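Progress against Task 2.4 (sequence-to-structure conversion) is shown through the following example record, which the project officer requested during the mid-term review.
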Amino acid sequence: MPIVHIYLLEGKPQTYLKALGDSIHQALMETWGIPEKDRFQMFHEKKAENFKIDHFSYLEGEGVQRSDDVTVIQITTSPRTIDMKRAFYKRLPELLKDSIGLSPANVFINVVMTDEEDWSLGLGKMTLIEKLK
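Structure tokens generated for the chain above:
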């Protein structure tokens, strides 16, 4: 039950945003095994003055050079293994390069993990715990 926030500069056409969201969801299904109908994505299109991402890696020698197409993808999720995250980090840039021509250097991913009791999908229930009972 990941929630995906996608941050990018405003101005991309709807077809681009759809392909971006579809690629993220495909990567999550392939690498984390999430169901097809488990799709919760929020797009945040920002004006340039409100989107300050360094075009060069702050890690000396990493060689990451971003453009204005940089896209920040933040995923809040229940616990995932390091192997699942590594597979996702690898697969998503491949899909985005193929679907929208996004350079892998412009794919910025952050995963925030929560415990299962941190989720209520409605009706005042601890959904991930109570559905398992």
